[in-house]
Amino acid sequence: MIRLAIAAEGETEVRFVADVLASHLLQFGVAPTPFDLAGQITAAKLGREMANLYWNFDSVTSLVDFYGFRGKGTDTVDQLEQKVFNEVDAKISRSWNQSRVFPYVQMHEFEGLLFTDVRAFAAVPSASPETIQTLGSIHSGFATPEDINDSSETAPSKRIEKLLPRYDKVVHGPDLIADIGLDAIREQCPRFNGWLSRLESLAQDSA
Q1: Is residue 60 left, alpha or beta, with left meaning phi > 0 and alpha meaning psi from -120 to 50?
Q2: Are 46 and 87 in contact (CB under 8 A)?
Q3: Which residues pair with 175 in a beta bridge?
Q4: Which of 36, 66, 139, 170 has the most CB within a 10 Å radius?
Q5: What is the DSSP letter of 134?
Q6: What's the number of CA atoms in the CB half-sphere (13 Å) around residue 143?
Q7: pLDDT band at 205 (very low <50, low <70, confident <90, very high)
Q8: What is the sign, positive or negative, of the torsion defined by CA atoms of 77, 14, 61, 28?
């Protein structure tokens, strides 16, 4: 069994790992443990946490949002992941197995995954057919749920909160992911699918 540490942005991601991702990955011989970073994500903070986890786990990854990533400037999501990896390397500061650590930054935001199937939002208090239709229109305006943009007004979570004021990201987010199902999300969210595929292969790669 591969012991996998996941440095998670906050409570929503921790619940997702514990309640949804863990049971899926156990089928592939991977046991994930989430660690709550409590927001305010920077490359230095994430790199420091992942470097510390490296010594106690077989593999280490992360689950943080591109939206809200502090100090990203004009960096792309791939450049941010490389910066975090470089921070890990600097913190460990000795020879180490670099294949065991791979930062992951969700594009643009964890809540974007929920747009895979907006019908799931019917479970949120105060949702209406009109609300679901509006959420569906947002989805259809982008190539994938991961492309829903990340300004302070149009980030996925901001769009959801505006339409569903009783939406609670910690309570509803992981539950909606479970209702939608990982298979459906993977079909529409290529970046997330690539990350999950790598997690599934960890045990096989170490054999």
Answers
A1: beta
A2: yes
A3: none
A4: 66
A5: H
A6: 4
A7: confident
A8: negative
> Cα separation of 179 and 183, whole Å?
11
Token readout for 206 is: 């170490």
Q: How far apart are CA 25 and CA 2, in angstroms?
A: 10
Query: What pLDDT digit, counting tens, does each position of 41-100 carry?
Result: 999 999 999 999 999 999 999 999 999 899 999 999 999 999 999 999 999 988 999 999
The H or E element spanning position 4 is strand 2-8
Tell whether omega for the bond before 108 is within 30 degrees of 0, i.e. cis: yes
State whether residue 167 is helix, strand or coil: coil
Domains in the chain, start-ordered, CATH in brackets?
A: 2-108+189-206 (3.40.50), 111-175 (no CATH)
Cα angle 17, 19, 23 (rounded to 5 degrees) comes to 85
Q: Which helix (H) or strand (E) holds 100?
A: none
Cβ–Cβ under 8 Å, residues 41 and 29: no
